[in-house]
TrEMBL record:
Keywords: Oxidoreductase
Organism: Lichenibacterium ramalinae
Protein's recorded name: SDR family NAD(P)-dependent oxidoreductase
Gene3D superfamilies hit by this protein: NAD(P)-binding Rossmann-like Domain
Assigned protein family: Belongs to the short-chain dehydrogenases/reductases (SDR) family.
Entries under PANTHER family matching the protein: SHORT CHAIN DEHYDROGENASE (PTHR43976), SHORT-CHAIN DEHYDROGENASE_REDUCTASE FAMILY PROTEIN (PTHR43976:SF16)
Length: 278
């Protein structure tokens, strides 16, 4: 397994995974542990010093500067380094764009985008000092696809993609690489733990209900979280990491279709697959 540039031979590499209490975050933390990392995970609802399956859990609210600062300081205090940051914490929102207030939209961006900016800013000084590091941002196929009845969620993921690709270009000469992992439907609790619009409008009831049904069915039949976790490990360890990993056949198919299928043909097929009415 490739060592990150600048890592001392024999030194145990350290990974920090946000949103590691369950789902993709927990699976990624366990996979990194299996790959030989010392792993720290964050969640809003854990006790400091709690250890779950050899993962050191730390309480952290990724929407708060001081909470992120304390978390990173705690990891550095125990290990002296952070070799890999996995930004996984996030929320979903299914509903028409018109159904969410500006405050709700801002809250979603704070969790899905600005938390990544926040944690990345906090670890970059130590990665620059080390001369190496990997930042792995969990995106979605909705980071490069349209998302009917998930316009705001899709917007956050499009923003994550643009931020991550741009950041990778800035950091390569410093020995730091940034990668995206963009899954399609994955068997997690994302949909049931997601937000609902804060001002539902009857005109969108049929479309919203269809979107919720599509998501529930897609997640139930989706890829196992282990496929996503495997790509996280690749992004963290490959000597020349890719900018984007698409776990599972569905995500790979969507990526190819988006690139090569004519726009109108893709639009018609995608609306059908997503259950868009009319």
């Amino acid at each position: 397994m490739a060592q990150g540039h600048g890592t001392q031979a024999g030194a145990r590499r350290v990974a920090l995974v946000t949103g590691a209490a369950g789902g993709i975050g927990r699976a990624s933390a366990l996979a990194l542990l299996q790959a030989g990392f010392e792993v720290f995970g964050t969640s809003r609802r854990v006790d400091a010093g709690e250890v779950r399956d050899s993962i050191h859990m730390l309480p952290c609210d990724v929407t708060q500067d001081d909470s992120v600062q304390r978390t990173v300081a705690a990891v550095l205090g125990m290990t002296g380094s952070i070799d890999v940051l996995v930004n996984n914490a996030g929320r979903s929102l299914i509903g028409a764009a018109e159904e969410s207030s500006i405050e709700q939209a801002q809250g979603l961006f704070d969790v899905n985008l600005f938390s990544i900016v926040r944690t990345t800013r906090e670890v970059l000084p130590v990665m620059r000092k080390q001369g190496h590091g990997r930042i792995v941002n969990i995106s979605s196929v909705l980071g490069f696809l349209p998302g009917p009845y998930t316009a705001l969620y899709s917007a956050t993921k499009h923003a994550v993609e643009g931020y991550s690709e741009s950041l990778d270009h800035e950091l390569r000469t410093l020995g730091i690489r940034v990668s995206l992992v963009a899954p399609a439907f994955t068997r997690t609790a994302l949909e049931e733990n997601g937000d609902k619009p804060d001002r539902m409008l009857r005109v969108y009831d049929a479309g919203r209900d269809a979107a919720n049904t599509t998501w529930k069915r897609g997640i139930a039949a989706g890829d196992p979280v282990g496929l996503v976790a495997d790509k996280v490990v690749l992004a963290a360890t490959e000597a020349e990491p890719s900018i984007r990993y698409t776990p599972g056949k569905t995500a790979g198919r969507f990526r190819m279709m988006r690139r090569f299928v004519p726009e109108k043909m893709f639009d018609k097929s995608f609306r059908k697959q997503m259950g868009v009415i009319g």
